[in-house]
Design a protein that fits this description.
The protein is an alpha/beta fold. It has helices at about 5-10, 10-45, 50-105, 130-170, 175-190, 200-205, 210-220, 220-225, 230-255, 280-305, 355-375, 405-425, 440-450, 500-515, 575-580, and strands spanning about 105-110, 115, 315-320, 325-330, 340-345, 385-390, 430-435, 455-460, 480-485, 520-525, 530-535, 540, 540-545, 555. The protein has two domains: about 5-190, Ferritin, CATH 1.20.1260; about 250-265 and about 275-580, Alpha/Beta hydrolase fold, catalytic domain (Rossmann fold, 3-Layer(aba) Sandwich), CATH 3.40.50. The chain has 15 helices and 14 strands. The strands form four sheets. The protein has an eight-stranded mixed β-sheet, with helices on both faces. Strands 1-2 form a two-stranded antiparallel sheet. The protein has a two-stranded antiparallel sheet with strand order 10-11. It is globular. About 40% of the residues are buried.
Length: about 575
């Protein structure tokens, strides 16, 4: 598709053809009605009986089915032409508006799309100091309009060729063929339900015209934005709408709470003792939840609206809702085009709330770390890191984080999301990593154990156990399983629950500190044999991932680092994470 072809296209000709098929459809329908009345009904009421009569009536009924099938096929052609006219008109309008804006900006657009302008400040046609920026924006709009028209051209050609083939070989007279065509037409007008295989979703999306895609995005952003298999750019567009609607709804609910009730009941009602007012307790719980969610929305908005530069790659909102504690999926760089893709699953406390800002920042840090690893290796590959708060995470250490139900309930969601990344990626993902922290490692481990994940690497940071006894049980090469846990991380003992009892874990912990106990030998990430105290602990959700018996590669840590310090500037774990995401050896 080129500028002249689209600009000069007479869309009315498509509409005329559509109208002609409408007239043919209507006339054919009238002929079917006449045939039914004059032939089929008369024969049925003729009282003609016998073998010949039975054969004749069967043939007449079959012919009636063929006529109805042909009638339906004519309707499909008419609808296809109507869609084509709509899409071509939209693409043409986008082109015309871009060309008009170019003319107003004193830019000259050649037939091949090249844009030039007068750069002499004293000239009457001087385009101004910002001409180059304007020219780039208009060039992108022109390209988008041409791509839009080309997509429509391919789509209408394929559909019309299909119906023409049906007509030429007679399959269009078959009721089963018509039923399939009707199902295809219906599918185009319906969004696949949540849980549909992402590859099927991607096929459905690619079969839509740009106009149809935009209609679904604007009419049903909540469904499109959270549907695995829809490309990242479309999900981002839909979820930005969801974000604003969610923000307005949260603010409306907050405003509707009314004034704060008295914190304590009247002394007369409590015999003089201070008793908290149940109305206040309910009000405060809702108030704090809504206020925290609005902080989470603000964190998302701030990152989405950050000016793109070398230190702040573009972000894409791949999922958002405020149900329960809220869910959000934010990608740093486009995962559909990045060479290396990593999904980060946070743990306890993950939600659309004040904690979301730090989770997003971690994705920024991991992309920056991966970029450093690539730069050091002279590799131009690009990396994307996705913060996946797509599940209902536990919100308290006790008792919620001790319950594996949250991990089990997340399995299908996480698997679908990862499959969706592969379905929408433009080409094969070069290196795919799943990286998790704290209870997030439990979620990832359970999913890999029970469902399997299409990833190349798994990184388990500060894990309370991931549901398996050995790295090989995660369903990938154990040499691609990495784990980290700082000596200063309290998760190493506070939440331990060895089958032999909590006491054994506590004794092992202090035995390691004091240098006494049964010694083990293991291998670190460099293949070097190391020794230490036998601390084969079992955490709440499985064997500790950093003991030799688990079999993971151990990443370097800051010995004094606490549970959330692995992304700090002084942490050696962050560079290691970047190297894994970039597909480089851990140094």
């Amino acid at each position: 598709m080129d500028i002249k072809t689209l600009y000069d296209a007479n869309i009315n000709n498509i509409t005329t053809a559509k109208n002609a098929f409408d007239a043919l459809y209507s006339a054919f329908g009238r002929h079917i009605e006449s045939w039914q009345h004059e032939v089929a009904d008369r024969l049925s009421n003729s009282h003609w009986t016998g073998t010949a009569a039975n054969h004749a009536q069967a043939r007449i009924q079959f012919l009636g089915t063929e006529l109805q099938s042909a009638h339906s096929e004519l309707d499909f052609v008419s609808k296809a032409l109507a869609k084509a006219a709509e899409q071509f008109a939209l693409a043409q309008a986008h082109l015309v508006y871009a060309l008009d804006d170019a003319k107003a900006a004193k830019l000259n657009v050649a037939t091949d799309g090249t844009i030039t302008w007068d750069k002499e400040p004293t000239s009457a046609n001087y385009a101004g100091a910002g001409a180059e920026t304007t020219a780039i924006a208009i060039s992108n709009r022109i390209t988008a309009a041409l791509n839009e028209a080309a997509h429509a051209d391919q789509e209408i050609s394929a559909r019309l060729n299909h119906f023409a083939t049906n007509a030429s070989n007679g399959t269009g007279l078959d009721a089963a063929t018509v039923a399939k065509d009707q199902a295809a037409e219906t599918a185009r007008e319906q969004i696949p339900p949540a849980g549909t295989d992402p590859a099927s979703v991607k096929s459905w999306w690619d079969g839509l015209t740009d106009a149809e895609q935009q209609k679904f995005i604007h009419d049903h952003p909540d469904q499109v934005g959270n549907l695995d298999g829809v490309p990242a750019t479309a999900r981002d567009q839909a979820n930005r709408i969801n974000l604003q609607r969610g923000k307005q709804d949260l603010q409306h609910q907050l405003d509707g709470l009314g004034p704060e009730p008295s914190k304590y009941l009247n002394r007369a009602e409590t015999n003089g003792g201070p008793v908290e007012n149940p109305e206040y307790s309910a009000w405060k719980k809702k108030h704090d939840d809504l206020t925290d969610k609005l902080k989470g929305v603000k964190s998302i908005e701030d990152r989405l609206n950050t000016k793109v530069d070398d230190d702040h790659p573009p972000t894409f909102l791949l999922g958002f809702d405020t149900k329960g504690h809220g869910h959000a999926i934010i990608a740093v760089n486009n995962p559909d085009t990045a060479d290396n893709v990593s999904t980060y699953v946070p743990g306890t406390g993950a939600r659309v709330g004040s904690s979301l800002r730090s989770d997003i920042e971690r994705s920024d840090l991991m992309v920056a770390s991966a970029n450093k690893a690539n730069k050091k290796a002279g590799d131009p590959s690009t990396s994307s890191s996705i913060t996946w708060v797509g599940y209902d995470a536990p919100q308290s250490i006790i008792p919620e984080a001790a319950d594996d139900t949250y991990a089990k309930n997340a399995e299908d969601k996480l698997k679908s999301f990862e499959n969706g990344l592969h379905a929408t990626h433009r080409g094969k993902i070069a290196n795919n990593t799943i990286l998790a922290h704290s209870y997030g490692t439990t979620t990832v481990g359970y999913t890999m154990r029970d469902k399997g994940l299409p990833v190349d690497n798994v990184v388990l940071i500060a894990s309370p156990g991931c549901g398996v006894e050995h790295a090989k049980d995660l369903g990938i090469d154990p040499s691609r399983v990495y784990a980290a846990q700082s000596d200063g991380d309290s998760i190493g003992w506070a939440d331990a629950a060895d089958p032999k009892g909590m006491g054994k874990n506590v004794r092992d912990y202090y035995a390691e500190i004091w240098g006494v106990g049964n010694h083990y030998t293991g291998v670190d990430t460099h293949g070097v044999h190391v020794g230490g105290i036998d601390t084969d602990n079992h955490m709440i959700h499985g064997r500790q991932t950093t003991v030799p018996e688990f079999g993971a590669h151990i990443l370097p840590t800051n010995p004094k680092g606490d549970h959330s310090d692995y992304w700090n500037d002084d942490s050696p774990t962050l560079p290691a994470m970047g190297e894994i995401i970039a597909g480089k050896p851990v140094s």
